[in-house]
Each structure stands twice: as structure tokens, then as C-alpha cells.
Amino acid sequence: MAVRKWLATGAFAWFTAVPLAAGAAEYPSAPVKFVVGFSPGSTIDIVARIIGDALSTRMGQSFVVENKTGANGMIAARMVAQAKPDGYTILVSNSSSITVNPLLYKDLQYDPLKDFAPVTTVVSVPFILTINAENPRVAGVSDVKSLVELARRNPNTVSYGSAGNGNLMHLAGAQLATMSGVQMLHVPYRGAAPMEAGLMSKEVDFGFDTLSGVPLIKAGKLKALAVSTAQRWHDLPDIPAVAELGYPDFDISFWVGVFAPAGTPPAVVDRLNREIAEAAKDPAVRARLAAQGNPSTQTPQAFRQKIADELKQNEALIKRANIKVD
């Protein structure tokens, strides 16, 4: 009985999938919406626009970015998870929304592995541990060691900003505090750009900034102490990695990736994957992406496994740092 039921279900799924798969050859036949859960000008938004422009040229249809901000990317993710799985509503998001939010929020309304068809990563991005040297509270801080010592002398007083509760910027700051054995004060903002503004206005003492802070660093308005990845960032070769400074296991970055709703025809997912991978090889597109992070694409299968692995790793970090959200 169970076998007959499985065969019947499988036959139904096969017959209903045939028209969808056949239509994939003409995909896209209408404009495609890229839904982004973060503000215009953020790394995720910029990457979405770079890829959207490239795909519009390659595929002959408009790829339009729609910003649905709020809740650390969850509003956009919910929207796409519930969208018709036809390839015309696509999520461009970061690892926080996919591999951190599910570990912290009960009323998420999407499952990262069940409700999406992963397409590919686009870039991998380091964070930069940054201070405002004009801030009198961090006077005398010249490196990570002196920052940690300041926190040790003033427990739960030295503050770090993030793009929101549970954001990877939050996890990076919590990881530094946990590994150092000190107490630091977390101050959440509504995005990376507001956090950076908080650094500039001296509201917070440090933060793990995105690459949008590089021009401010080069202009001398912010001071970089370290990068969060295991290796140095090519655009700041003189800035050490945190892993070089007595924290060998410190390696936190975020990726920007592309997702379709679960149930999207595999042929459509594969077409998007191939087109994005080919677009990322174009020298002009690659140069624009490299300003946002390390260009990096992969197969849908490899991307799905990466998500599963990071969910396990982040779960361990969240428990170790005792991170909770309201």
C-alpha cells in the first residue's frame, strides 16, 4: 500500500512538473524581481543590482531590485518563501537571514532548508574591526590587544555596534568577547549603515563593519584594527586578521547568495546558477563584485550543503556566547 501510494505521488509530481520544466527553456519571459531585505546602498543591495544588471543583459529581461527591509532580512525571506515558485520572485540575501535567524527567532515563518531552492553564493565578505580614533572612550586603543584590555578594565562598558540582534556582526563581537573572556556591551542598530553612523558619531566604541567602511578607513575617519576572516583582506593588506592576534579559531564572514522559492523547477534554478556564474567571470562584473567581497559562485547542491554546515557551526557559537533575542 505504501509503495503504491509513493508511486502514485511520484507519478503525479512527475506529470505536474513536465509543463514547468518545459517552460524553463523560455525563462525568463517577463521581468524578474530580486527581493532584498536590506536598505539601498548595503552590500547585499549593491550585489543584487550588479548581478541584476548583468543578467538583464545576458537574458534579455529586466531584473528589478525591490527592497523589503526590516527584521534582519526576515521580511524579505518570508515574502519569497511564500511566493509562487516560478522563478520570477527571487531572494538575494545574506548568511545572517539564512543561517543565524533560524537559530534565534521562534516565529520565523520560513525554514532555510525546506522553503528555498538555493541557487548560488555570489560573494564572500569579511568584516573589519573598526574604531573611531576621535572617540575619547577608546583613546589609547591602537590594536585588538589594547581594545580587549580596555574592556577587561571596564567590564560591560566598552560597546560594540551591529546591524541588529543576532546579525553576524553581533556574533563577531560576541565571539571576540567570549574568546577574550571579557564582558562587552552590545548595541544593535537597524542595519550596517546606521551602525557605521553610530561609530562616526561616537555612540559606540567599535564595530565589525562591512566593506562599506573601507573608504572611511582610507580617508582616516575610522581606524581598522583587524579583519574577521582567517586571511587578510586584499584591499587592506596592512591590517592583520583577528586570527593572527592570538585567536586562531576566529574566522567570521558573511556571504551574499541567491535563492528561489522551494518548488521552483530545477531547470530554472540551474539556468539562474549558470548565468550568474558566467556573469561573475566577466572582467567588468567581477571588478564590481570584488569591491564588495570575494566573488564566489557554486552549484546549488554545494550551496545547500554550505547552509546546512553553517547552521551547525552558528548554533554552537550562539550557545557558547549565550546570545538571545527578545
Automatic annotation (TrEMBL):
SUPFAM superfamilies referenced in this protein's UniProt entry, alphabetically: Periplasmic binding protein-like II
Signal sequence coordinates: 1-24
Domain of life: Bacteria
Pfam families: TctC (PF03401)
Alphabetically ordered keywords of this record: Signal
Alphabetized InterPro entries for the sequence: BUG, Bug_dom1
Family (UniProt): Belongs to the UPF0065 (bug) family.
Protein name per the record: Tripartite tricarboxylate transporter substrate binding protein
Organism from which the protein derives: Achromobacter arsenitoxydans SY8
Lineage start: Bacteria, Pseudomonadati, Pseudomonadota, Betaproteobacteria, Burkholderiales
